[in-house]
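All the exercises in this workshop are built on plain-text protein records. A record pairs a protein's sequence with a compact description of its fold. Read left to right, the backbone structure tokens trace the chain's path through space. Once this layout is familiar, the rest of the handout is easier to follow. Here is such a record, shown just as it appears in the course material:
>
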Amino acid sequence: QAFFCLLLCVPWGSSCPPSCQCTERAGAKAVLCSSRHLEEIPKDIPRDAVFLKLDANSITRIPSNAFRHLSHLEELDLSRNAIEKIDRAAFRGVAAGLRTLDLSSNRIRSIPKEALLALNAKLRLANNPWHCECALQEVLWEARLDPDSVQDITCHTAPREEYVGKPLLQVLDAGVNFCSVRQRTTDVAMFITMFAWFAMVIIYVICYVRHNREDTCKHVGYLKALPSTQGHAE
């Protein structure tokens, strides 16, 4: 009975993943999982965690709702992993309280802007093989980026070769607008689609008129031949 009472009295949020170390920092719980060869985010992170370090592991993806139960989380370090994919709802549940998010030194080429623009946290996105595009531009302009790391957000790939290897901020300062390029591409695609539909309608109308004309001609010919036949019969 004493054992079961002890289980009931211990709060579930105070447990610690076996691959991590849990400590107190100024009265706030810190969960340290650095360099633990982790390939995914641990499932049993304490609910009262305020600081979470998952850096220097082998994590490849941040799935939806990965930190949703961590309502007290303020600082999250995911740097120096192998992250390639971040889901749109990856940080749902922690967006309001998170103050710092470190995603630097990963393998991130692109990221849904919805995943970051909802955050109030200061972001570190440096040293990733970014593909410079509209979504990344919007993140740069609208998100709270760490000013010390902005210059290290470099175009690994880009729509034009001349942008490759340059800091994204430098490219944008030169007057490049990746969003307008995408808009022009969308406009051209819409124009081609509308033209194709219009051409199909015109072809259908021409075929319809031609078919009706042939039927009319046959019918008129039949009517012309009808009296002549009756005349020979008389």
Notes: The chain has two domains: 21-176, 177-210. The longest strand covers residues 21-25. The chain is about 35% helix and 15% strand. Residues 1-13, 182-189 have pLDDT under 50 and may be disordered.
